[in-house]
Design a protein that fits this description.
The chain is α/β, with parallel strands linked by helices and 362 residues long. The protein has 13 helices and 14 strands. It has 2 domains: 144 residues, Rossmann fold, CATH 3.40.50.720; 163 residues, Dihydrodipicolinate Reductase, domain 2, CATH 3.30.360. Helix 1 packs across helix 12, helix 4 packs parallel to helix 5 and helix 5 packs antiparallel against helix 13. The structure holds nicotinamide-adenine-dinucleotide (NAD).
Length: 362
């Protein structure tokens, strides 16, 4: 088999969102990946998924995956508190690694992962699947081509619904195992899209509240942000909305963008693109004239991962992207307890560098 058509062999640990990685990520890219092994502590959950996709190897002990010489990629889909040890062990075993969000549980851990990645044989790709699809990628292309001009302001709304059934899963709703609430678990995707399109954050003021569910972590948040480039932003997220929408609205000098409102797939459908002049409209039309459809979410993230594994393209999502997302989370939680603006970047000297989890829950 030549390198150009190498089919990478995958083992997935965690059969919740792990199933979506198979359905949306690996099956549509079956020429690029083969899922050879599944791991889950819960055999009743793992078995039907393994049967459904004809995956012969099923194990309950993560270390068994590390020992499989014919596995190229370990895909970590376990609850957040387990990501750090699993990612480090998989890198140490010489595997490539895919890891669900949040990559790890602190900036200290993410910096350790980044350092380990540099001396490891394998590549590490965190998951941020909302970055892929026609809508988000057309907006990104217009911005990167310099057509949109100066960023002015942006709003991000994550208006979702979660109730007692969702929080019946024991690891959810608790600081120790979920590591955060709507900010860390749900809005992290949309906030990543905001910084991806608008730029790095300079400072933010964040508020959090727990008003919807009886849980330790927050389920309502708002923030006011200032970016390095001078633009401003505001975030609102709740798990108590009557219906579910995701809405990202960005005003640039020459163009305003509004995302599609599909809560879990805002990047797929074309976004509302509002040029402020006929000249800008013409430039956008020329740029998008031969647009090739981009399948959304895991389908494209995994396809581009394959290109990166072959050395043909950069990783579509990097550990640096995860660090930026976790820096935002750290600053947000810190601001919400100090009731002060928090400046970024956040490094080892910061009080929350080793953990954003409140001391009483750590
Ligand atoms: N990208 C997204 O849109 C998205 C969506 C949902 C969840 N997630 C993330 O995916 C991760 C998993 O979430 P989920 O909703 O699938 O959770 P889940 O509870 O539905 O599934 C996790 C699975 O991991 C298994 N597991 C736990 N500890 C294990 C261990 N030590 N060894 C092997 N298996 C173990 C559990 O038995 C369970 O089946 C979380 O980090 C979550 O934030 C991401």
């Amino acid at each position: 088999m030549t390198a150009a058509n190498q089919r990478f062999r995958v083992a997935i640990v965690g059969c919740g969102i792990g199933r979506s990685h198979i359905v949306e990520g690996y099956e549509p890219n079956a020429d690029k990946f083969e899922v050879k092994a599944l791991c889950d502590l819960n055999v009743e959950r793992m078995t039907p998924i393994a049967d459904e996709f004809g995956i012969e190897r099923r194990v309950t002990n993560f270390d068994d995956l590390l020992a499989m010489d014919d596995i190229d990629i370990i895909d970590v889909c376990t609850p957040p508190g387990l990501h750090y040890p699993m990612v480090m062990a998989a890198l140490d075993a010489g595997k490539h690694v895919v890891c669900e969000k949040p990559l790890v549980g602190s900036l200290a851990e993410v910096d350790e992962v980044i350092a380990r990645e540099k001396v490891s044989k394998g590549l590490l790709m965190p998951v941020f699947q909302y970055r892929f699809g026609d809508g988000i990628e057309q907006a990104k292309a217009i911005i990167d081509a310099g057509i949109a001009g100066k960023p002015y302001v942006g709003t991000v709304e994550t208006l979702w619904t979660r109730g007692p059934d969702y929080y019946a899963v024991p690891w959810r709703g608790k600081w120790k195992t979920e590591l955060g609430g709507v900010l860390m678990t749900h809005a992290i995707h949309q906030h990543d899209l905001f910084t991806y399109l608008m730029g790095d954050i300079k400072r933010l003021f964040g508020r959090v509240a727990t008003r919807v569910n009886t849980i330790e972590v927050e389920d309502c948040v708002t923030a006011s942000l200032e970016l390095e480039n001078g633009a401003l932003g505001s975030f609102t997220a709740t798990l108590g909305s009557a219906d579910e929408i995701t809405r990202i609205r960005l005003a640039f000098e020459n163009v305003s963008f509004e995302s599609d409102h599909a809560p879990y797939n805002p990047g797929a459908k074309p976004w509302k693109i509002l040029p402020r002049s006929p000249e800008t409209a013409e430039r956008i039309a020329a740029l998008l004239e031969n647009w090739q459809h981009v399948p959304p979410r895991f389908t494209t993230q995994m396809a581009r991962f394959h290109a990166a594994l072959l050395g043909k393209a950069p990783l579509p999502v990097t550990s640096a992207d995860s660090r930026r997302a976790l820096e935002l989370v750290t600053a947000f939680y810190h601001s919400s307890t100090t009731h002060e603006d928090v400046e970024l970047p956040i490094g080892p000297g910061h009080a929350r560098y080793k953990s954003w989890v409140p001391a009483e829950f750590a």
